[in-house]
Amino acid sequence: MTLALDGHRVLVGVGGSVAAFKACQVVTDLRREGAEVKVAMTEAATHFVTPTLLRALSGHRVASSIWEDDPAEVGHGMSHLDLASWCEVQVVVAASADLIARLALGLAGDPVTATALACRAPLLVAPAMESAMWEHPATQGHTATLTARGARIIGPVHGRLASGHESTGRMAEPDVIVSAVRDVLVGRA
Ligand SMILES: Cc1cc2nc3c(=O)[nH]c(=O)nc-3n(C[C@H](O)[C@H](O)[C@H](O)COP(=O)(O)O)c2cc1C
After folding, report:
1. How far is the CA of 179 from the centre of ligand 1 (A)?
2. Which atom of ligand 1 is nearest to the CA of 133?
3. Burial degree of 67 (CB within 10 A; 0-12, 13-18, 19+)
4. pLDDT the model gives residue 189
5. 2: Cβ–Cβ under 8 A, 6 or more apart, which residues?
6. What's the whole-model pTM score?
């Protein structure tokens, strides 16, 4: 049976939002559709979901530091460059306000932003934050910058936030994110 994303290579970047646990579902769903998935995560993201779990779900070693600390590792030790040239699309989920700002500014101090800056593949970003952070002119400005550069922003949506409030800032559901990846790679047909 041929799956929709058979043979496609997707990089999932994970930020330090409370929605980071949903990265697990995104990775799982992408693999169910046939994609090969690798994961890069920020240090903050590791406080919410472990590299071990994302490694188990993706089937690949997870980049959680730009510094290679495994002495048995071979190669040039710059996993962000390998990931950047490997992927056909990069989707950053649980994108915090801080991570969106760094992406917009072109900073490269962590595995997600370093890979994004070195990468020519399309960039999808799924923000997740409290509504005040999302609506802040700084975040709106950074998001507009990313959009103007060709990035696709998925959500956020209106719904229940981590604070318990109902407002806009909730991350788009994993199936919507996977659908956006499918749209970029193979179209909706
Ligand atoms: C429990 C907790 C939940 C948080 N949730 C969010 C969130 O949903 N969105 C957000 O933008 N920041 C959130 N933050 C703040 C970020 O974790 C913080 O800005 C962090 O530096 C972001 O890391 P990153 O830039 O690597 O994503 C949260 C912090 C804590 C302690």
Report:
1. 25
2. 11
3. exposed
4. 44
5. 34
6. 0.97
CA distance linking residue 125 with residue 101, whole number of Å? 12
What distance in Å separates the CA atoms of residue 168 and residue 14, rounded to the nearest whole number? Answer: 20
Query: Which tokens is 121 given?
Result: 């593949």
Place of tokens 């990035």: 151
Which residues does a 6 A CB cutoff place in the pocket of ligand 1?
15-19, 42, 44-45, 96-99, 128-129, 133, 162
The CATH class of the 9-186 domain is: alpha beta
Q: Rounded distance, CA 160 to CA 43, Å?
A: 26
Phi, psi (rounded to 5 degrees) for 60: -135, 155
**Helical spans, DSSP H, in the chain:** 22-32, 51-58, 79-86, 97-105, 111-117, 131-135, 137-148, 174-186
- The position carrying tokens 């040039």 is 76
Domain ranges for the chain, please list them: 9-186
How far is Cα 189 from Cα 186, in angstroms, rounded to an integer? 8
Question: pLDDT digits over 75-127, tens only?
Answer: 788 899 999 999 999 999 999 999 999 999 999 999 999 999 999 999 999 99
Tell me the H-state helices in 118-186: 131-135, 137-148, 174-186
Sorted by sequence, the CB contacts under 8 Å of residue 34 that are 6+ apart come out as 2, 3, 4, 5, 6, 7, 8
